[in-house]
Amino acid sequence: MLLFDKIIIMKSIEVIKAEYITDYKIHLWFNNNVDKIVDLYSSLKGVVFEPLKNVENFKKFKIKYNTIEWDNGADFAPEYLYGLE
User: Fold this and answer.
1) What is the pTM of this model?
2) If you classify domain 15-83 with CATH, what class do you get?
3) Do residues 76 and 70 lie in contact, with contact meaning Cβ atoms separated by under 8 Å?
4) Torsion sign across C-alpha atoms 65, 69, 75, 78
5) 3, exposed or middle or buried, with CB in 10 Å at 0-12, 13-18, 19+?
6) pLDDT digits over 19-56, tens only?
């Protein structure tokens, strides 16, 4: 007979709302009732993120597939965003 002391069910993290704040900061709301402001400047690495270093391009994100995405296809995993301090 197998006994389990604990069963942990983890709900996947999803971005449900996002608002531009200033510079490279976005206020994010997650589906687990957590909200936070993240500064993505240091995360803008790689070719796909180059256009987003222009703050006018950076501001033009939307929520798609449970995270934030820009018109050029750049996005971040919601778990990555959730883990940012």
Assistant:
1) 0.86
2) alpha beta
3) no
4) negative
5) exposed
6) 999 999 999 999 999 999 999 999 999 999 999 999 99
